[in-house]
Write a structure and sequence with these properties.
The complex is a heterotetramer, with 2 copies of chain A (85 residues) and 2 copies of chain B (159 residues). Chain A has 3 helices and 5 strands; from the N terminus they run βαβααβββ. With 85 residues, chain A is an alpha+beta fold. Chain A is globular. The mean pLDDT of chain A is 96. The radius of gyration of chain B is 16 Å and the shape is globular. Chain B is an alpha+beta fold and 159 residues long. Chain B has one domain: Aldehyde Oxidoreductase, domain 3 (Alpha-Beta Complex), CATH 3.90.1170. The N terminus of chain B is likely disordered. Classes of the chains: A alpha+beta (85), B alpha+beta (159). Chains B and C meet through α1, β2 and α3 of B and α1, β2 and α3 of C.
């Protein structure tokens, strides 16, 4: 297991943030801490993710929340409300 | 850590189209006590939010999608006495009148099949990581907004 | 005095089998605003009332059947905003796993199609003059009893 | 229009009464009067039709009751509860 977390962005988030995935060191205890770090990248990241009341989160393919804890090897996904079917 | 998505022939995420008769027959195979088969087919409408739609692009989150759908399917089997069920969802570029999604629920008596199919669709609409992007005749491309009525519909099942 | 039964391509009483895909495609034809298609297929179960069934004979009242079904179909269109609907019921000798009945309801959004299909089936079960006679492996032949649960199911629609 | 009513028996009624249809003079004001006349044929007719609480009646393809009135040319059908679908 690498000492990283794998982050995925889907749909409008992927387009707005200009990337589909990235790897970061596994140095965040919770999703909230990770979001705070990402928001440091600028206003756009802050608006799309941290301050987005409709932000959807999954950790290792399970629905998660900002309080969900993270560990090395985790896959974290951020995406807007789903619209399939 | 990522768990393998549940391997099941009853969840299919695919680009190609599906055939209703073929899928229902395959699902019924070997279940002689099935008396009721409810199928839902979702199709691409030519108009959305008052605008003509020329292309509908379906994106999903591979791995999580299968897991979320299998969870919904098993929950439906637990709540209603289903003999068999199936979910197929297409991804990629679709056009008006194309089939998008198929849900089939089969049971001994019709009430269970009806409720289960409706439950699976309501749950899929709110829980399965799919996103739609539509192209208008002008060339404008926009992400489809989630419908409030979908999360309202899901609430009645008290998941 | 007998009125002509309503002539409609959306009610079919037939001995031969039907194909789900073909019927749904034909019904959707020309309705580009359909987004949801709910199909119900009733099939012959191999067991009824604990006994194995080898043959199921379907009898009906020609003329009244078509009229009763068309009334149910139009009532469904009135209650829910359907784009299209179809009822096919087979008659004659059927066997386990054979298809008996098909109800299809198509609408813009899924809730209407689900409710309408369920309403049509519940109404058909209590109002349409069909009778089933089953043959057991012993050669015994018996008329199928109406199910109390069917008239209960019909009551919820407050017709 | 003939001065008769046309009577149909379906399913178990047809088998129990040994006939599928018949014509009778149009001399009954209501379904009830017709049923009383048919019951005169014997205990069997009385049991299957007149005293049957589950008797279903249609007049000219419409659901009817014992109170429904009859006139020349009418088609009256008697049958047990339906079991299609």
């Amino acid at each position: 297991m690498d000492n990283v977390i794998h982050i995925l962005y889907f749909a409008s988030f992927r387009e707005q943030l200009g990337q589909a995935e990235e790897r970061l060191p596994a140095s965040y205890a919770t999703v909230s801490e990770l979001l705070a770090e990402l928001a440091e990248r600028g206003e756009y990241w802050k608006t799309v993710l941290l301050e987005n009341q409709n932000l959807q989160i999954a950790v290792n393919h399970n629905v998660a929340s900002r309080e969900t804890s993270l560990k090395a090897g985790d896959e974290v996904a951020f995406f807007p409300p789903v619209t399939g079917g | 850590m990522i768990l393998d998505s549940t391997l099941t022939p009853f969840i299919k995420i695919q680009q190609h189209d599906f055939d209703l008769t073929t899928e229902v027959l395959a699902l019924r195979q070997g279940h002689k006590n099935i008396g009721a088969v409810v199928s839902f087919v979702g199709t691409v409408r030519d108009i959305n939010e008052g605008d003509e739609v020329t292309v509908l692009e379906l994106e999903h989150y591979p791995g999580m999608t299968e897991k979320a759908l299998e969870k919904v399917r098993l929950e439906a089997h637990k709540r209603w006495s289903l003999e068999a069920s199936l979910i197929i969802h297409r991804i990629g570029s679709l056009h008006p009148e194309d089939q998008i999604v198929l849900v089939v629920a089969a049971s001994q008596h019709r009430e269970n099949a009806f409720f289960a199919a409706q439950f699976i669709m309501d749950s899929l609409k709110t829980n399965a990581p799919f996103w739609k992007k539509e192209t208008l005749p002008s060339g404008e491309v926009r992400w489809v907004d989630s419908r409030i009525s979908d999360s309202e519909a899901q609430k009645r099942w008290k998941v």
